[in-house]
Amino acid sequence: MKKNQIGLRKTKQRELILEIISSAQGPVSVNEIALLLEQRDQSIGIATIYRTVNLLLENELIQCVRLQDAVQRYEQTNIPHHHHFHCNECDKVYDLEGCYLHLHESTLKEGHLVNSHEITFRGVCKDCQESS
Asked: Are residues 111 and 68 in the same domain?
């Protein structure tokens, strides 16, 4: 994390939380961030995680992803356009490479101009299929 023009200081906690979000297979919730930090033997309070996530959002280092379940998840902002897969069994969300619907900057037959879109596929992830 670099110090930007509004003075975002580099701290160990901010670095850890940003690294957790950046290395995840898909967007992660605050609770998932806390669990992943715990798995790394890093203890950061939930209030600190929320404050850090809000700071990272304000500085546009991460973005919020909202799916049908209304849980706010976070991913880095510097990744190319992509879609998501949400597992019905384990509730994990995975990034999918590329775009399955190439409509950027297109005009729909009704005359609407498309400048972005979001697609979330739902089903059972590979890990859950193998464990059942």
From this structure: no
Residues 99 and 47 in one domain: no
Q: Which residues of 24-38 are buried (b: 16+ CB within 10 A; e: fewer)?
A: bebbbbbebbbebbe
Taking the C-alpha atoms of residue 77 and residue 19, their distance in angstroms, rounded to an integer, is 13
Judge if 70 and 130 occupy the same domain. no
C-alpha–C-alpha distance, residues 86 and 127, integer Å = 13
Per-residue pLDDT of the chain (132 residues; tens, 9 = 90+): 554 544 578 889 999 999 999 999 999 999 999 999 999 999 899 999 999 999 999 999 999 998 888 899 999 998 888 899 999 999 999 999 888 776 666 777 888 888 778 889 999 999 999 998
Extract the annotated binding site for Zn(2+).
Answer: 87, 90, 125, 128
Q: Which residues are annotated as a binding site?
A: 81, 87, 90, 117, 125, 128
pTM: 0.80
Rounded distance between C-alpha atoms, residue 30 and residue 36, angstroms: 10
Residue 93 domain boundaries:
80-132
